[in-house]
Amino acid sequence: MSVEKEKILVQKYGGTSVGTTERIKIVAKRIKEYYEKNFHVIVVVSAMGKSTDALVALSKEISENPSDREMDMLLATGEQVSIALLAMALHEIEVPAVSFTGSQINLLTDGRFSKARIEKIDTNKLLTALEKKMVCIVAGFQGIDLEQNITTLGRGGSDTSAVALAAALEAKECEIYTDVDGVYTADPNKIPAAKKLSKISYDEMLELASLGAGVLHSRAVEFAKKYNVILHVRSSFNFNEGTLVVPEDTDMEKLLVTAVTLKKDEARVTVSDIPDRPGIAADLFAALGDVSINVDMIVQSTGKDNLNTISFTVLKNDVLKAEKVVKELLTSWGAGGASVDKNIAIISAVGVGMKSHVGIAARMFKVLAENGINIEMISTSEIKISCVIRDDKSEEALKLIYSIFGLENA
Amino acid sequence: MSVEKEKILVQKYGGTSVGTTERIKIVAKRIKEYYEKNFHVIVVVSAMGKSTDALVALSKEISENPSDREMDMLLATGEQVSIALLAMALHEIEVPAVSFTGSQINLLTDGRFSKARIEKIDTNKLLTALEKKMVCIVAGFQGIDLEQNITTLGRGGSDTSAVALAAALEAKECEIYTDVDGVYTADPNKIPAAKKLSKISYDEMLELASLGAGVLHSRAVEFAKKYNVILHVRSSFNFNEGTLVVPEDTDMEKLLVTAVTLKKDEARVTVSDIPDRPGIAADLFAALGDVSINVDMIVQSTGKDNLNTISFTVLKNDVLKAEKVVKELLTSWGAGGASVDKNIAIISAVGVGMKSHVGIAARMFKVLAENGINIEMISTSEIKISCVIRDDKSEEALKLIYSIFGLENA
Does B234 reside within a domain? Predict the structure, then answer.
């Protein structure tokens, strides 16, 4: 017997979906439904709920700065626990199943511990098990390097594992199970009328992922785009159809804007009166990168007397660290000042329609201006416009932009 | 640079020794002392304290009878957590160290999940790391089979891992760290004057291990005997010399008895009035083996009318299960009766001196008789005598036997 590619289905269940043994049993029942429809099911699971946090806490009791190799060795146990328990739960309801660690399917990565990149997957063991009508359960987030060291893939790693497996197996679809029903036109907690999108393009999903929509990690989306893997973001709590993440099509371009998002977890750092000479910005962002601070928006403007101002946003959690780095640089430059503003929000509109429609940014700026909402920073991509505004105006701004682009009728 | 075999030291730390992160730090400091004396240290660790129990409990929430393969997959994570944390603790005090799972050193076993036997160990990775002056930390209790399935070695598995590594590396010594100072002439909790033995033979240790002295598992001792590995049983809480487990020498034979033990965790099952025909005993013990009940002492006697009585002891925890098996057999035989007695104790004297001295058993029986202690079952080996007596007389019996063999002057 051989395995029909069209019937291979990869399902990824996150930490919440397998957070307790009760939840694991529910996931097992769900898998059984697909198994009985003659799908060849490959399941990728994350560590149970907060178990990764517990392992991190344990390591912190020993070392503030543990070696990346040993941290990966430690964290990889979380997924190994999940796969064993899920296999047991499937056996309990008479579904043949077998679990695999990253090492066992030779999920080869480079040697960058804690943020490894997948290089190759050996599908032989999985195909052999699928041929025997077994469900394969694979530990997400982990792999091994050429020397058989255990590596982990960093944040969102299980999503990436799932997509990589779907690509390697040429699976029909890769389902990403989460605790929401799919991707929405806006956060339903803020805009109750927000609608679930039936499909969205990879690029739009990438922008939304980086805007913190939170359902899917950027790296997994990039991987899916590269290998043309159809993603299906859906809830593990019901059988509703979720959102398909697919290649762009012409239908999508008819919409001006696909979704709007609001991000309130960033703060702005403004570095003013710094010399206008080459290399200043490079020094600044290299120094921030060295201490692993991710910078989101960046705006530079030239002021009087050839002095520049650079503003950038970072996560609120990182802002004190960022300020420290900046002040050290200012000392070394012998010039400039720095200030921090935590009361900002970033509002964004995303849509591939922007490529073919002009004036979208202007409409967004206009509606904000008409309502007395000041725009403090602007950043755009081909399919995204983001504005920094005052935090206390942000919910109002979200509703205005949602409405101006006609998303309530989408 | 090559690795001098004479300087290879294998150390095994059990679950209590690495029960908390504080204890792990203490173990790391201890390892550092040996490392700084230029030993090539290979450390084998068990899972932290009760973590294996916690994993078992988790599996029970899902299945009463989980698959052995998935159980091994689950349990192996316990040791993996320990090795990562211990490596971090060593780094923290500037000792270069690297951790290895059973899979990573290709610790090959047969495919009998939950009770696998070690077949081969690849020492290349370990020797390479030792050459680089690194401490190697190996996950005890686990290996892989030819298909790369994760296997575990059963009870006392980490001891066996340590001995197997010591044998494969031709190490100077294999230190087994535990929470007691070594092997005693009797349980110091019961005989406060009990003395620590400076050395003991493999065979004596085997008898003591099976008598529940608890410091070392029989399989590890058998392995050590087979490969002539010197074991050193000692405490991880101090630097006292412990007990060496070594090949028998003539000195040892001068002593009549090396140690006495008392076991109170067994119960006796008596099967009476059963037909005296071939195969009856075989049927009985095969049926008990089928449900994984370990039988310790067995005594058979022939009564009147060609009817037999067979008495045997099993762990108190297993006695109800054993009784059930027996009653089913009695039904199929259409004859006999069964009774259970939980108020027994097994007292034993062990010593290689028994081989060369006559009358030891007689002295033991005599002192018990003189003190009105009835012997209900007797079982002997070349170097051991065990008697079943009433539970409430057992502490008294222990003291009498300890004294009659002059152990207070040993």
Answer: no
